[in-house]
Amino acid sequence: MFECYVEQARRVIFFARYEASQLGSPYIETEHLLLGLLREDGRIKSRLGEAAVAQIRKQIETQIPSHPPTSTTVDLPLSHDAKHVLHLSAEAAEELGDHHIYPEHLLIGLLRLAGGFAAQLLQPYGLDERAARDLLRQARHEQPDSGSVPEPEPEEDPIPPGAPLAATMDALRNLLDQSRRNLRFDEPYALQRLKRQPWTRKEALGRLIDLATTHHHWLTRALTEHKLSAGGYPPTESVTAQHYNDARWDDLVEAWLAINRILIHAMRSIDEAAAQKPCRIGLAGPVPLKQLMETYFQNCYDLMSQILGHLG
Question: What is the pTM of this model?
Answer without folding.
Answer: 0.59
